[in-house]
């Protein structure tokens, strides 16, 4: 198996959800969810760990529940209220799509001089994180407090709630966050695990068929000649930043991940 699709429930950490899935051998999760959040958690098993960086490039769909009137220090319902605003007549701010600079939450996994920001913030230290370049594909208000967003990896929905609350003066934080989908993978029902073999786990990548000679050339770090790629079976949303990897197939099985220049990223 290469990728397991796990439904992480509210109240557990992503690491606890990974351990509960009980994968054998080498494994990791493909993108953490905060303990208060729920939804799809990809667990990468065996050689599947080599696709970790590919998941960062995929569109991720979240449904967020906002509470207007209060901003908390960690930007979710378990934090300390640090600012309040008038939520009696909330104006829903416009949301700009595309690449943008976003300040991550102080309570995040970002590192500051080798230490996790959330650990420093929890210890009472002042945390100042520089803006990160992130991508928001689309955002749709479902009603006054529910928002569906499609983003690229590295985007913090908690930070979006903070910025929206500051934009309309009402202040805001998240009370719920659910990850519905990552790329072609939808969140399975709670209590179930969907296990995808490697051949089915990477449908968004274009494919390059390799001959025996080309496999040998790659192992010797020799370049491949350009050749038309087979299109992906699952396409990224129109306008979404393209992927930078290619799936290399030899004798009917996935043999390697190639970079855009057709050099080897990882053998599978």
What report would you give on this structure?
- Strands 1, 2, 3, 4, 7, 10, 11, 12, 13 and 14 form a ten-stranded mixed β-sheet that branches.
- The protein is elongated.
- The protein folds into three domains: 3-58 and 184-200, no CATH class; 60-182, Pseudouridine synthase (2-Layer Sandwich); 203-267.
- The model has no long low-confidence stretch (mean pLDDT 90).
- Helix content is 16%, strand content 35%.
- It is an alpha+beta fold and 268 residues long.
- The termini are close together.
Radius of gyration using CA atoms only: 21 Å
Largest sheet: 10 strands, mixed
What's the CATH architecture name of the largest domain? Answer: 2-Layer Sandwich
Number of strands: 18
How much of the residues is beta strand, in percent? 35-45%
Shape: elongated
Distance between the termini: 12 Å
**Average pLDDT rating:** 90
Which stretches are poorly predicted, pLDDT < 50 over at least 5 residues? Answer: none
- Fourth-tier CATH superfamily name of the largest domain: Pseudouridine synthase
Q: Which CATH first-tier class of the largest domain would you pick? A: Alpha Beta
CATH topology of the largest domain: Pseudouridine synthase
Structural class: alpha+beta
The domain tally reads 3
The helicity comes to 10-25%
Oligomer: single chain
Query: H/E series, N to C?
Result: EHEEHEEEEEEHEEHEEEHEHEEE
Number of helices: 6
Offer a quick outline of the entry.
The protein has 6 helices and 18 strands. The chain has 268 residues and is α+β, with helices and mostly antiparallel strands.
């Amino acid at each position: 198996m290469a990728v397991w699709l796990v439904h992480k429930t509210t109240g557990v950490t992503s690491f606890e959800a990974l351990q509960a899935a009980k994968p054998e051998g080498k494994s990791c999760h493909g993108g953490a969810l905060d303990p208060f959040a729920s939804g799809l958690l990809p667990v990468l098993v065996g050689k599947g760990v080599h696709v970790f960086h590919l998941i960062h490039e995929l569109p991720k769909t979240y449904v967020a529940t906002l509470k207007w009137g209060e901003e908390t220090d960690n930007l979710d319902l378990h934090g300390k209220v640090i600012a309040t605003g008038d939520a009696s007549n909330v104006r829903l701010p416009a949301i700009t799509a595309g690449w943008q600079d976003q300040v991550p939450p102080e309570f995040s996994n970002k590192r500051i001089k080798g230490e996790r920001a959330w650990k420093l913030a929890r210890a009472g230290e002042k945390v100042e994180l520089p803006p990160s370049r992130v991508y928001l594909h689309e955002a749709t208000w479902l009603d006054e407090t529910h928002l569906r967003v499609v983003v690229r990896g590295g985007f913090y929905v908690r930070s979006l709630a903070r910025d929206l609350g500051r934009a309309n003066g009402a202040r805001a934080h998240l009370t719920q966050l659910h990850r519905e989908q990552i790329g072609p993978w939808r969140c399975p029902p709670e209590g179930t695990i969907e296990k995808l073999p490697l051949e089915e786990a990477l449908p968004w990548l274009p494919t390059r068929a390799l001959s025996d000679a080309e496999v040998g050339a790659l192992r010797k770090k020799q370049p491949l000649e350009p050749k038309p790629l087979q299109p992906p079976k699952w396409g990224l949303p129109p306008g979404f930043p393209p992927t930078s990897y290619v799936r290399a197939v030899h004798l009917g099985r996935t043999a390697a991940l190639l970079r855009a220049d057709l050099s080897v990223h990882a053998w599978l």
